[in-house]
């Protein structure tokens, strides 16, 4: 990929003019620019299309050059990167797996000097060019193996950050940290000779207990959701740390953030009750903690059932998630379903219930959407019910 060719005004205009076009249709066309392959143009158009909402700053800045779409798919969104960056401050940070450089850009708003390491020279050069277009001058780009770079250096950093690749050499997904690249389990001690704090991003699919079984010195785990979809886990590792481990569940929304802190070892018992006036559904990051009893105690709400993960109260309380007022509490049977569900238009949620959402929609001809929310669940008395609610 020739960055200078891509930066020609007529090429940039072509990319901009075709952002709404189908990549499949464009693939049959010939490049209108000598020396520039159509595949390079398609890479720019497709990656920029994918960046529109996830990376709006990059999308809207002139003369940004994009990598292959896989790099866009794997990178942090701006919202998640900004949240992670809000947790740090200091003089220096090195990112061992720099990629497209979104995390580094946001870290650089809080850290005096940031080093972006990327093993692919072409991607490193592309990122360096983009930082210039973004006016970010306190990031140094280093092309090469970051672990070799550290091994040959005596430099100390306030933070080391990494996002290990979750695919092996055969491009197959891996599920243990020791199988990722770089292998944080193998290299952690070496990293801690260059810093006292390691920040590691992992995929949301990683089981928290499995990760803890492989790591040491974990001080906190931030579970980061964007618009109620868990996007990533951030592991904070402090050299020689041996205290309590904090779970931080945060949901980044258009209106701010919902954030809850829970001790990983909190074994507080939950309280239980039949549905009261209000119903609470934890956001996805809070559910990812697995601390369902602690949620009950933390927010002073009652669980409906051991396995339902829905909560209730008589008075309206603050809660990290969605809150509803229960309008009707009905047993699930043929008679009530026919009377209250058939031909209804509603948003459906299923928790600890034998039928799936699609099955319920098909069976009772429930249309999607509207202002009504129906929760199908099992209560403390093991009764199958549906709760017709309105959001608060």
Mean pLDDT across the residues is: 95
β-strand percent reads 25-35%
Structural class: alpha/beta
Tally of DSSP helical segments: 16
Spans of at least 5 consecutive residues whose pLDDT stays below 50 are: none
Would you count the extended β strands for me?
16
Biggest sheet, spatial arrangement of strands? 3-2-1-4-5-7-6-8-9
Helix content: 25-40%
Question: What would the principal axes of the Cα set say about the shape?
Answer: globular
Q: What gyration radius follows from the Cα positions, in whole Å?
A: 25 Å
Q: How many angstroms does the end-to-end distance come to?
A: 52 Å
The largest β sheet comes out as: 9 strands, mixed
SSE blueprint:
Layout: H1 3-6, H2 9-17, H3 23-26, H4 38-54, H5 56-60, H6 69-74, H7 78-85, E1 90-95, H8 102-107, E2 111-118, H9 121-134, E3 139-143, H10 146-151, E4 159-162, H11 184-191, E5 197-202, H12 208-214, E6 218-226, E7 229-238, E8 246-253, E9 256-263, E10 278-282, H13 284-288, H14 292-299, E11 302-303, E12 311-313, E13 321-331, H15 334-340, E14 345-351, H16 357-364, E15 367-378, E16 384-391
Can you describe this structure?
With 392 residues, the chain is of the alpha/beta class. The chain is 31% helix and 29% strand. A 9-stranded mixed β-sheet has the order 3-2-1-4-5-7-6-8-9, sandwiched between helices. A 7-stranded mixed β-sheet has the order 11-12-10-13-16-15-14. A hairpin with a 5-residue loop joins strand 15 and strand 16 (384-391). The longest helix has 17 residues, at 38-54. The relative contact order is 0.07.
Q: What keywords describe this structure?
A:
single chain, 392 residues, alpha/beta, nine-stranded mixed sheet, seven-stranded mixed sheet, 16 helices, 16 strands
